[in-house]
Amino acid sequence: MKKVLSTLVFLLVFVFMAGLPAMMFTACSKRQGEGQGAGSTGQYTPTGGSDDYADPANVSATVIKPSFWVISQTGYNGSEIVWQAIKKATNIEFQITPVPLASYNEKLATTIASQTLPDVMGMRSYSTADRYGPQGAFLSFEPYISAGQMPNYLKVLNANPPAMQLATSPNGVRYGAPRIYETPRMDEAFLARIDILEKLGLSREPETLDDFYNMLKTVKNNYPASAPYINRWEVSHLLSGFGNIMNTSYTYYLDPDTGDYTYAPATQNFKDMLAFVARLYKDNLIAKDFSVMSDEEYEEALIKNTGMFSYDYQDTGFYEPSKNLADAGWFWGAILPPKYNGKRYGYPVLQGYYGYTKAISAATKYKDELIRFFDWTYSDRGAKTLMFGTEGETYIMENGAVKMLADIQYAGNPSGTIVSHGLNDQFIFSVLTGDGAEFFENIGQFTIAQKQFLTEKNAFAQPVFGARFYDENKQKRYTDIKNPADTYVLEAATRIILGQASVNDWDREVQILKTTYKVDEGLDLIREAYKETFGK
Question: What is the pTM of this model?
Answer without folding.
Answer: 0.75
